[in-house]
């Protein structure tokens, strides 16, 4: 079974308007709501691909209840931990030619609730996959990713980490099966700017030397590169289309890649690329139909 963890789920409230005028009343021309957070996004796209997963994480208040109900309505199994105080966050995204975002902070996660998450992680069995995605709330200890991977070490469980900075670097000693930085995040890890696929290979291999088994690097309009556990290098270009939404494209790529692993790394990379493109070319997350359409390009 695949398990995804979203430490700080959200309702994304997307508002479209004409020119945004400050210090004035602005009226929406349309609006949408999406239930998300990086791990939840992965579960949603996996469901579109016909792959089952269990969404873990923390929810709170009436917004948390809405997130849980919304995710379950998509046919995704959930096992969220309800926090005793606060409300799950709402992220406001204003699209008025350019895009302005106001992301909520989210509730505090108390020690007892974190212990409940550890207990759920302890139930995983050999052959399962655990995906840790995104940043963590300020109320959580900075080593929470490390503590989870340490608990799973030596248990034949695939661990996947989609994070940046120290959250990512500090788990490498536990040899995660897959990490997925984008090219900007990869450069930040080494204090440089990534400008070519050759640099992606150079610095991606440094992450493999530090412990990562497989490194998947997305490069927006320049495609993606996978450095695999056998020392192989796999590359894939991008799909053709008009970008209308960047939110969740990386999560969608990760979902597609995981879904295609049984058919080999090259196929997994193609499916991941199609999923990332399907989200980038859509108002919401990738649909099965859009993924199939883009796969034909690859």
Overall residue-averaged pLDDT value: 93
Helix fraction bin: 25-40%
Characterize the quaternary organization of these chains.
single chain
Taking the alpha carbons of the first and last residues, their distance comes to 28 Å
Quickly count the helices. Answer: 10
> What does the main sheet amount to?
9 strands, mixed
DSSP strand tally: 13
Q: Can you write the helix and strand succession as a string?
A: EEEHEHEEEHEHEHEHHEEEHHH
Rg over CA atoms: 19 Å
What overall geometry do the principal axes of the alpha carbons give? globular
**Proportion of β residues?**
15-25%
Low-confidence stretches: none
Strand order of the largest sheet: 5-4-1-8-9-10-11-12-13
Protein architecture, described:
The chain is α/β, with parallel strands linked by helices and 298 residues long. 35% of the residues lie in helices and 25% in strands. It contains 10 helices and 13 strands. The chain has helices spanning 38-48, 61-73, 111-122, 144-152, 165-169, 183-189, 197-209, 249-259, 265-280, 288-295; strands at residues 2-6, 10-17, 28-36, 53-59, 77-82, 89-96, 98-103, 129-133, 158-162, 178-179, 214-218, 224-227, 233-236. The strands form 2 sheets. Strands 5-4-1-8-9-10-11-12-13 form a 9-stranded mixed beta sheet, with helices on both faces. Strands 3-2-6-7 form a 4-stranded mixed beta sheet. Helix 1 crosses helix 8 (249-259), helix 8 packs antiparallel against helix 9 (265-280) and helix 9 (265-280) packs across helix 10 (288-295). The longest helix has 16 residues, at 265-280. It is globular, with a radius of gyration of 19 Å. The two termini are 28 Å apart. The model has no long low-confidence stretch (mean pLDDT 93).
């Amino acid at each position: 079974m695949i398990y995804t963890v979203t430490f700080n789920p959200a309702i994304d409230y997307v508002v479209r308007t004409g020119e945004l005028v400050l210090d004035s009343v602005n009226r929406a021309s349309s609006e949408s709501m999406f239930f998300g957070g990086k791990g939840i996004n992965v579960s949603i796209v996996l469901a579109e691909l016909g792959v089952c997963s269990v969404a873990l994480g923390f929810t709170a208040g009436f917004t948390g209840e809405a997130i849980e109900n919304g995710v379950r309505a998509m046919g995704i199994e959930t096992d969220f931990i309800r926090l005793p105080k606060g409300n799950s966050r709402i992220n406001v995204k204003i699209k008025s030619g350019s895009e302005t975002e106001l992301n909520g902070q989210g509730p505090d996660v108390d020690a007892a609730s974190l212990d409940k998450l550890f207990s759920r992680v302890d139930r995983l069995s050999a052959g399962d996959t655990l995906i840790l995605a995104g940043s963590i709330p300020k109320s959580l200890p900075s080593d929470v990713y490390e503590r989870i991977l340490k608990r799973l070490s030596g248990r034949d469980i695939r661990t996947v980490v989609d994070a940046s900075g120290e959250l990512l670097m500090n788990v490498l000693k536990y040899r995660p099966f897959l990490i997925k930085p984008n090219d900007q995040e990869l450069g930040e890890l080494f204090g440089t700017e990534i400008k070519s696929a050759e640099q992606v290979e150079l610095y991606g291999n440094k992450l493999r030397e530090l412990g990562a088994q497989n490194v998947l690097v997305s490069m927006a309009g320049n495609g993606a590169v996978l450095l695999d556990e056998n020392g192989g290098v796999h590359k894939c270009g991008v799909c053709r289309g008009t970008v209308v939404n960047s939110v969740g494209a990386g999560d969608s790529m990760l979902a597609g890649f995981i879904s295609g692993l049984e058919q080999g790394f090259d196929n997994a990379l193609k499916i991941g690329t199609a999923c990332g493109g399907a989200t980038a070319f859509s108002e919401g997350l990738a649909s099965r139909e859009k993924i199939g359409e883009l796969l034909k390009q690859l």
